[in-house]
Amino acid sequence: MHLHAPEAPGAAEPAGPRSWLAGDHHIHSRFSADWEPDPAGGPPRPILGGDSPYGIQRNAEMARKHGLAWMVSTDHGGPNHSKLAYEQAYPELLEARRAVPEVIQFYGMEFDTPGADHSSLIVPHTHDERERLREVESRFAKREPHPADPAWDTEPRMLEALRHMKDMPAPPVVIANHPSRSAKGVGVYGLTTPRELRDWNDTAPQVAIGMEGAPGHQAGGLKPDGTPDPEGARGSYRNAPTMGGFDQMTARVGGFWDSMLGEGRRWWITATSDSHRHYTEGGSDFWPGEYAKTYVWAARSHDDILDGLRSGRVFVTTGDLISELDVTAEAGGSRAQIGETLAISRGRDVRVTIRLKDPAGANPAGRTPEVARVDLIVGKVQGPVADRAADSNPTAQVVRRFGPADWRRDGEMLAMSFVLKGVAEDSYLRIRGTNGAELEPTPDPPGEDPWSDLWFYANPIFLDVR
Length: 466
What we know:
Elements: E1 19-27, E2 34-36, E3 45-47, H1 56-65, E4 70-76, H2 81-99, E5 104-112, E6 118-123, H3 129-140, H4 155-166, E7 173-176, H5 194-203, E8 208-214, H6 248-251, H7 256-262, E9 268-271, E10 292-298, H8 302-311, E11 314-318, E12 324-331, E13 334-337, E14 341-344, E15 348-357, E16 373-380, E17 397-402, E18 408-410, E19 413-423, E20 427-434, E21 455-458, E22 461-465
Parallel strand pairs: 1-4, 4-5, 7-8, 8-9, 14-22
Antiparallel strand pairs: 1-10, 2-3, 5-6, 6-7, 10-11, 11-21, 12-13, 12-15, 15-19, 16-17, 16-20, 18-19, 20-21, 20-22
Helix pairs in contact: 1-2, 2-3, 4-5
Protein name: Phosphoesterase
InterPro entries: Pol/histidinol_Pase-like
Region (Disordered): 1-55, 214-234
């Protein structure tokens, strides 16, 4: 079985050198509105600042302060919200781009996903991006019609939306937000299910590309003064907690993410702030980039950042635990990096080399966390599963745990390697690491200090045995 990733639409050589660019694709502004009845009986009227008080420029300024190179403005929808976004939010985005040129800013929204929870909708930067978002939101966002229409909130309608997006001249990207926030327990999913995500990815593999590995609202366990809130939950995951700040779909070795990768799917993870209101102002959020970062290996352009997301050239981290991560798989003179595929002869040894930067400076909490362990995880690729609700891949396992005695340090850089002997089957490998001592991330208790429990994850490299 040979693995072939679907070609990204419009992919081209980058216009400039690539580097690790930190970003956030889930950020709210004052255009995530509340709504009040219209006395004349028309659609409810928006109350700006109802769900988030910040302007788009303010978000961009904080993104710049916290080291982000790119961001996506993703406001909630609502009745006739496409009109609000078109007439008011987009002009403010243009102003923010002019005021904060250091941050590459995408237009998008938190899509009110038919038949599921929410998802980040990222629109390519084109001359008609304003029209393209209105086209999708006005036709498919489940909260758009007034009066509300249950027929807009069905799984088949989401697949119709994805087919439409796939056929657009410049297809957008869709990433499932906080996929297990409504789950009732481990493996007991809520609004977003494994079967749905498979259906999305099958329908439009270069549009529905992945999910938030680490959701936002990570300050949910903090009071405004920074002390623990015993009633608060990281990520606002109140029924099935996050694990090390990550969604159960990502955090469990051999769980849903490994199940998707075990089918050979190019299904990637990200990390976001889901910033609505800062925790010091009574919210449950950090600023964009303050706690979670999604690093994309890309040139400083809208097109290459979006190509990097589609292609899985991505690692994620919390608390600035690391700021660079290079993973290389080599065999027979060929090599592949994060998001790529290495073709090898059956039985060939594969050397995995990991280089990461553990920054010496303090993070926004004034702490200087250190990497305590790095894990190499390997799983088999065995093709499509018979049960589309499957959320496990028993072949996935940690094959090597690296500690300080196992790596070479050169200033802030750590380097380590391992040889996978005689690889005989299609496989994938992925990397994660932590500042803690837990061998596996455990459920996060209410009131946990998010700065004390940090993890990073890289997207996989696939091994195609021929």
